[in-house]
Structure formats: structure tokens, C-alpha cells
Amino acid sequence: MEVPANAAGLTPQEKKTVQSVNANVLRAGKSYAADEYEASAEYIRAAIKQIGEAVDGGSPRLYDELVPAMQRIEKARTLLDLEGITLPAFKRPTRPAEKPEMNSKDTKPAPGKPAPVPADGISFTKSVAPILSNRCGRCHASDSKGGFNLATYAALMKGPPEGVVIFAGDTVGSRLIETIETGDMPRGGGKVTTAELKILKDWIKAGAKFDGTDPAAPIAAGTAPAEAPRPRLKAMKATGKETVSFAGDVAPLLVESCKGCHINAMRASGGLSMDTFAQLLRGGDSGDIIIPGKGEESLLVKKLRGTMGLRMPAGGRPAFSEESIKLISTWIDEGATLDGASDNQPLQVMSQLAWAAAATPQELSDRRAEIAGENIKLVVPSDADVTEEITEHFLVVGDGAPDTIKLVADLAEQQMKAVKSVVSADAGQAFFKGRATIFVMSKRYDYSEFAKMVEGRGIPTGWSSHWKYDGIDGYVSLVATDRDDEDAIEARLTSPLVSLAVATRGGDVPRWLAEGTGKVIAKRHGNTEKSPRGRTKKPAVNQELVEALRAMGSAKQFLDGRLTPEHSDLIATDLMSAMLDRAQRKGFDGLLRNLSRGLPFEKAFIQSFEATPQQFVEAWKRWRTGS
After folding, report:
1. How much is the pTM?
2. Strands 474-479 and 465-469, how do they pair?
3. Position 75 confidence tier, pLDDT thresholds 50, 70, 90
4. What domains can you pick out in the chain, each with its CATH number?
């Protein structure tokens, strides 16, 4: 017995299916926003399975209601892929055929249901739709760039707000053809082939007719299979024979001119994100932008020269000089190799580290002082007094009373004994590779605003101090007033100062190592109790740590930063407590020495502990949980 459809054209069961799929997609989005990528992937997998089961034997109306969810799934797969999460291939299922509504006494289609229109030899569904879907789909089917959407035949013929782009019988007046022939579309360097362009023209000349069953059906439904995913370029390490450095020469150019559109962008233009080297090699909607060994043939160089499509950078920004373009082209000619710490390191950090590596401690100190002057103005009123205090290791700056600033400076120097318990240096300033900055806020509100204005993040309620290192700038920010006693201020300084010293040992020191070390040393400061007979004493496992270990799942989740900050910090502190114990201390000291020598973190870790970080963390977890 058939269940009657509701007012929206769906049966109650179909409506429930749509709600369930949308709920899973929504949960996936919330999990992704919380950096819980594995959980997000599970919700997407569930939604994909639901869609497959629902569409198989379902109605066209149900399919249409699920299209928005399918579009979000496609975007979610791309975002999760960037985070290293692999999901099964998702190809939109074929839209079920529309069943003609029949009169009770004959077999003719009911009035108001037009029969398919022949297209004079050129099929829209079989010939035109695949071209539009494959060449234009990412920008104008899954999205509506420029206000233009061609996800369906009806939307295509309607055109963008400026007016229609297809005039039946007139290829000259059809803007769709014009933009393809001039190279303006598809954006990003993609190209409609000559044969494909002829099909589009012939279809328009023949009347731009539709031969499907539903003009509102997605153009991807029933089209030819999409092209196989192109193989990804692999990052090749620099040999040392290159004349151009990516980290020192190329990355700074890209960071300076591509911010906002392709670097640190809310939404990367043309699907091209260049936040990391890996993303740069991945390319964008139009494919690879780099062909190793062929600089002038690479899309990146062509776009910078303006010889293919819109010249980059766009938005009125200055064009790259010929010298800069030649530098990038030469880097590609020499193999497009990487001399940074890793292909997942942010280009902004990579370029800063390259500069810092070549700078003297005094140059770093001067640059940090300059940055500090700019940052303090963001939270301190222009008419307020700012006090500075310079010591051997620190520049202390804030709006508090001069006596408070002086006290913080003195206490920070005293805490260097805690820093020296884990980090060694030949010269005083080498502990932070130059003077570190300490920002002192007299009000917690200003401390919180500082994080928002300078770091673009909120501060947890319980925090009263924290640290940051971005490759050049290294600082501690804290709340301190004339009402705080020395012990309170000292407690706020120890952990972040130790963490900052560890973070500045190398270019890719993970946050968990620096943060965990700082918290352990702060707890141990003034307490030198050792385990009996030098053996590692397993501390009690509290409930919060139990929950963090359960959430961790695998070591890779922790190492890749896929846990919540609270869980990550709990695990990092307990892990570093074991690593800093007598049994493992030799390996830890060797790790810091290797990092100071310039070795990448992974290599430095393996040499020090004879295991990869993942193997070490997995072994620690088994020891910690007794499993």
C-alpha cells in the first residue's frame, strides 16, 4: 500500500529521511568546527550511506530535496581531505526518472506535463551537461560564483542577475560562449577544449533545447563519469644544489601578495589554498599550478604574468616584478623542491623561520621590539602611559605601574633557572634566539582583548598567562597588577617561559612538546623529588586524563592536533612528565640538541629516542593505560 505524499510532495518516510541526512551533515559541520575531524568524517559516511539507500528506488522529489546535502558532502570531503582524512569516493547517484502522471482512462501524460523536446541531434543531457558539469561545476554548480548558478537547465537559462547568458540560435550574443572564447572562463586557467566548444555552439545554434525529463534536475544527474582524480604531486626535498630557496625566496613573495585570497583566506579563491606547501602542490579548481622542471609552462607563472586568464594577484594589488616572477620560475625549473621543515608547515611560519635563521640575536631582538610596539597599541589607549623594562633576556612592556613592570622583569629573570633546567645555551640571549617580549596587562579584559586583536582567538576563562612563537616573534602575555604578590606573578611566568624556550629550539617544534614541558617544569620547580632507585614512577591517572586518553584513540590523532585543546594539554603534560623523568631524560636532552642543530623534528626525535613520535606515544599510552 502506497503511503500518501505530504504537501511538499514527499511521503512521511521520505521527509524523515531528508531530516536524518541533514542532521548528520549538520553534526559533521559542528564536529569539523571543533577540530574533531574523525567524528566529522563518521557523520559524513553515515549521510552518504543514507543517501545511497534513499535514492535507490526513491522518487525524483526526494532526490531534489537531498541535492543541498549532497553539495555540502562534496565540500566536506574536500575540507576533510586537507586534514588528512580519507573518505570513500562520493559520486552523486543518478536522479530517478520522473514517472508520467497518467489519466485514469488512457496512457497519455497528464496535462501540464510536457514531453521531452528533441535537440536536433545535440543532446543536452548526454553532450552538453557533462561539459558544463566537469568544466564549470565547482564554481557554478556546487557554488554560485558571481551570482551565477548552472546546476540545472532552468538555472542555466535564467542566467545571473545581470541577465541571460544563452540566446537560443545566437552564439555571438550568448555571453557563455564569449567568456569561454576570450579565456575569461573557466577561471583559474582551466580550458574548454575545441571539440567541447563546438558542441556548446552547435547546441545553441540548434535552439538550446532540453531533452531531459525535468528542467530542474541537476545537470550532473545522468552525465558521463567524472574524470579520474589527477595524481597528486609529491613534495621533493631540496638537494642543496638549488640556486633559489623556497622558504627564503619564494614563500615570502607568496605570503606578502596572496594573503586573504589564497593564504589565511576565509574561502580560498578558485579552490586554491596556499597556506602550506602541500596545498600549493595540490592546486585548485583548474588543476595543478606547478609543473616541476617547467617554470614558464606552469599555471602559477602564467597567472603572475597575465598570459592566461585574469592576472594575479587580483583586487588591485601590485603585480609581481619581473625579477620576482623569474625567481619563482627558476625555483620551478630546479624541481620545485622544498627546503622548509615540512610540507604541512604554514608558509607564513616557514618564511619567518627562514629569515630568523639568517638573523643575528640582536636583529631578532630589534624586530620583536618593533612588533611589540605595534601590538601594544592595539589594546592600550593612545593617551595611556606604556612602560618598558629591558633585561638580559626580556623586553617587558605594559600599561601597569612602573613598579609592577619592574617586578615582572625581575621575576622573569629569576625564572631563567627553570628555563636553564631544560634548555642550555652558550650565550644568554640564545635561550630565546634574541630577547623575548613579555606583555603585562593590568586588567584581565585587556589580556583577553590582546589575544583577540593580536592572535585572533579567545582566551579560556581560567587563563592568566600564555605564550606564542611564530618563527620570528616570541612572547609571553600575562595579567599582573600591583595587588598581586610575587608568588602569583611567578606562577604565571614559569610555564610559558619554559615553553617559549623549548619552542624556539627549532623550526617545527610541535606545540604539545613545548606546552607539556612548560607545565611539567612549572610543577616541579622547587621540588626535586625523584622516584625510588631512579625508576619511572607511574603517577595516578585522574578521570580527566582517562577521558582524554579515550578521546585520543590513536597517537596520530594527538600528534596531528585533532583533539580538543583541553584533552591535548592533559595528554601532553602527562607524556612530558614521563619523557622528563630520569629514565627518558637523556633522550629528551638529545632531542633539544638535535633541534638546535637545525634537524627537522621527526628526524631529531628518531635519532634521540630510536623510535618515531607515533611509536613513542603509542608505547607511552600502552604503559599509561596498562593495555
Report:
1. 0.58
2. antiparallel
3. confident
4. 12-82 (1.20.58), 124-205 (no CATH), 246-355 (no CATH), 359-504 (3.40.30), 522-625 (no CATH)
